[in-house]
Amino acid sequence: MAILRAEGLKKTYGKGDSRVDALRGVDLEVNKGEFVAIVGTSGSGKSTLLHMLGGLDRPTSGKVYIDNKDIFSLKDEALTVLRRRKIGFVFQSFNLVPVLNVMENILLPLELDGAKTDKEHIDNIIETLDLKNQIHKLPSQLSGGQQQRVAIARALAGRPTVILADEPTGNLDSRTSQDVMSLFRVTADKFGQTIVMITHNTEIAQTADRIIRIEDGLIVNR
Question: What is the Cα–Cα distance from 33 to 197, expressed in whole angstroms?
Answer without folding.
Answer: 13
